[in-house]
Amino acid sequence: MMDVKMLCCAVLFPLQILLCVLKAAARRLMPHKRRDLGVDVVLITGGGRGIGRHLAKEFAKQGAKKIILWGRTEKCLRETCEEISLTGTECHYFVCDVGNREEVYEQAKVVREKVGDVTILVNNAAVVHGKSLMNSDDDALLKTQHINTLGQFWTTKAFLPRMLELRHGHVVCINSILSLSSIPGAIDYCTSKASAYAFMESLTLGLLDCPGVDCTTILPFHTDTEMFQGMRVRFPQLFPPLNPEMVAHRTVDAVRTNTAFVVLPWTMHFLVILKRSAF
Ligand SMILES: NC(=O)c1ccc[n+]([C@@H]2O[C@H](COP(=O)([O-])OP(=O)(O)OC[C@H]3O[C@@H](n4cnc5c(N)ncnc54)[C@H](OP(=O)(O)O)[C@@H]3O)[C@@H](O)[C@H]2O)c1
């Protein structure tokens, strides 16, 4: 009896996989229905500058109800907040270091009391220490892991439970193509991003059974912000840095079309495949 059951499973499993692949392909070919952001309260970590600032502007442009910015530098947060408020979208900012667990939970409470329930959480804040392992002191290495990886654990733990209660929410991670294909000289960053990728993959799978709550992970290539300024890229004509406005636009679109993983530009898929076959 057991053998017959096992045999059925063995036959059905590849068919199930094929069905999933066909469904995914059909979904890609169909025109996407875009989610209306009119009821959404969006919190963006690192929203004061860089890609985060463009994300805030893009979410506002595409109709989000309220925008909340988190970051460490009040001046940047205030300036971005003022710019968004001028467009007519309600915007708030709070100084919060996402690498500090107590501060995240404390500020999450303040956000809920002062602004309301967050329905889209964008984990964007990150740092890069960018030295070799032997030239880095332990505190600097720990700081990158706290901000880039653990920060996402704290923010998600703070806001996800309410999204699940409301059956309405989205967790977004601005990751990096370096999470799938590391480079030398940024060992702290690559490690933290690979860990953040595993976090999002696990979360995405875990939320498949939770209606109304979804995830999006964005994996951009080198983007023109302060983060990697001065970084030398081989063949810069072939691989120019991405424009942060474009990254923000594709991110908001991915949320609206409920796309789980986006590699930017799509040609970077080849890099990952090449790397896998090279080792
Ligand atoms: N630039 C690239 O080439 C590139 C490529 C792929 C992926 N990404 C990813 O895109 C995201 C945004 O990067 P970016 O290029 O916009 O970098 P950026 O210009 O250096 O901005 C980083 C943002 O993170 C915030 N931040 C840093 N530490 C923080 C902390 N402890 N708590 C709260 N906020 C903090 C910063 O604000 P404060 O300093 O005010 O706190 C700033 O708003 C990151 O996740 C990065 O890994 C960037």
TrEMBL record:
GO MF annotation, one: all-trans-retinol dehydrogenase (NADP+) activity
InterPro entries associated with the record: KR_dom (IPR057326), NAD(P)-bd_dom_sf (IPR036291), SDR_fam (IPR002347)
Source taxon at top rank: Eukaryota
BP terms from Gene Ontology: regulation of retinoic acid receptor signaling pathway
Endpoints of the signal sequence: 1-26
UniProt subcellular location: Membrane
UniProt KW keywords: Lipid metabolism, Membrane, NADP, Oxidoreductase, Signal, Transmembrane, Transmembrane helix
Record's catalysed reaction(s): all-trans-retinol + NADP(+) = all-trans-retinal + NADPH + H(+)
Documented EC number(s): 1.1.1.300
Principal cellular location given in the protein's record: membrane
Domain Ketoreductase: 40-215
Family membership noted in the UniProt record: Belongs to the short-chain dehydrogenases/reductases (SDR) family.
Protein name per UniProt: Short-chain dehydrogenase/reductase 3
Organism: Clarias magur
Native organism taxonomy: Eukaryota, Metazoa, Chordata, Craniata, Vertebrata
Originating gene: dhrs3a
